[in-house]
Amino acid sequence: MYKYETHMHTFPVSGCAKVSAEEALDFYAKAGYDGVFLTNHFPDGFSNNESVEEQTKALEFYFSDYEKAKAKGKEIGLKVFLGIETSLGGTDFLVYGLSKEWFMSHREFDRMKMSEKLLFLRENGAYIVQAHPFREAGYIDHLRLFPRHVDAVEVINACRTDFENQMAQIYAENYALPCFAGSDNHTGKERPTLAGMCAKRPIADEADFIRAMRAGELEMFTADNRKE
Ligand SMILES: [Zn+2]
Ligand SMILES: [Zn+2]
User: Fold this and answer.
1) Distance between alpha carbon 8 and the CA centroid of its chain, in Å?
2) Each residue of 187-226: pLDDT tens digit?
3) Which residue in 149, 200, 214, 216 has the most C-beta neighbors within 10 A?
């Protein structure tokens, strides 16, 4: 099976991450993965910056970890794919299939309300997964569900509790939404448990991954990364 990490963060682009893109990639290569998606927290609200130059700077910084990862991936033979994680008050969405160039030239989506944004991204070819829809935390005022605006639901998030994941599973099943798994890895090799998607054949790129998701070719997997 070919294994893919679908949900991971790297420092400094994700301030909450504790691992650089290069270190994270070394870990996944050693763990036998065929590829990883970098899904750093997107700078939502970047278009509030006054000048176009500041907006460009914010976006260039955002994609800098992805570019570092891409170069490192080539060097060590690990595929690096682009995703983003966009957020509305703790309700998070993983967006796959759009390029850096697309984001640089479609800044208008930043000002849309979430339901319109999701629609717009999908119309432009994105595949969207609602991440950990039942995550509860002090900074999350309330849960929000978007069953008509996403392509799949993350029902196994390696950082969430069994209860939160089970609720996500019930939700996905009842809305007939495909199930998705990811680690939400912020710490590279230190992450005790892992989750992701795997395939019987190698995935070539983001578009191929989306095709495989739509065709039901990908399966969820989990792995224990704790040392004895
Ligand atoms: Zn984070
Ligand atoms: Zn995340």
Assistant:
1) 6
2) 999 999 999 999 999 999 999 999 999 999 999 999 999 9
3) 149
CATH number assigned to the domain comprising residue 80: 3.20.20.140
pLDDT digits (tens, 9 = 90+) for 8-20: 999 999 999 999 9
Neighbours of ion ligand 2 (CB under 5 A): 85, 184
Mean pLDDT of 158-163: 98
Q: Where residue 120 falls among pLDDT bands split at 50, 70, 90?
A: very high
Q: Give the ligand whose atoms come closest to the C-alpha of residue 10.
A: 1
- Compute, in angstroms, the gap from residue 102 CA to the centroid of ligand 2: 21
Distance, CA 216 to ligand 2 centroid (Å)?
Answer: 23
| Ligand 1 center–CA 25 separation, angstroms | 17
Distance of CA 40 from the midpoint of ligand 2 (Å):
7
Q: Which domain holds residue 13?
A: 2-224
Total structural domains in the chain?
Answer: 1
pLDDT at site 108: 94
Closest ligand by atom to 37 CA:
2
Ligand nearest to the CA of 18: 1
